[in-house]
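Example 3.2
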Amino acid sequence: MDGKIMLESKARVAVAPDGNGGLYAAIRSPLSSSDKSHTVLSDLSARGVLYVHAYCVDNCLVKVADPVFLGYCISKQADCAAKVVPKSSPSESVGVVARRGDKFSVVEYSEITSEQAERRNPKTGELMFNAANIANHFYTTAFLRSIESFEGELAFHIARKKIPTVDLQTGETIKPSKPNGMKLEMFVFDVFPYTKRFAVLEVARNEEFSPLKNAPGTGSDDPDTSRGDLLAQHRRFLENAGAFVRDGAEIELSPLVTYAGEGLESVKGKTFTKSGHVENVEELDALL
């Protein structure tokens, strides 16, 4: 990492995506070469869309266009907002939503000392830095349009990565075993300090956040934990509606059946003994 520009081949500079913060420029980019005025932003305006819900973490429990979140943000007249969950532990490697002076931002876990991470509210016993950011956001389209005016002020974040490069002598590709270069990235939450009215909504982790980050068999944030969290939620939906689900029975409910546990009145008093995936409420009777 000596400041040199890396090459992908003898004739091509190595490039990389600019991070999830690149979405703001992307929604202003033309959707086709034949009509440069047609962008995602212009399409939202043409459709009369006033509010946007976005998330950028693989998360099987995300509530797309959550009416509670949208309604909360609209009632607060927020131009941008974030959902958060309580940290699982002081040492959890996750950024937290916090204030820097009078501005909201996401403070990365690497920016917080161990002493700060362990600090607790003496009245509640909760962590002082407890609002884990889960990359689940609300925007007004007006705020999305305004980002271009300050986007040049957003700082790049340095990410040290293993970047394939070329041996200039042989022309062969070198695949490094450890980080050998730096990428410059922007993060989606970098716009938070520029909001005029920011809102935060804390939600239950077991109901809304099960990230998929790791390979199968890792035991944490992997396909197995995501599957388990989704099935556990759907079991709760059925049991909260008055049903009984036998141990070992795994039932997955399509979003066409229920969004957040509503519409399951017909299962009250029923006992489910079989596993299965159902696309409508009537199919649940096959799992009795």
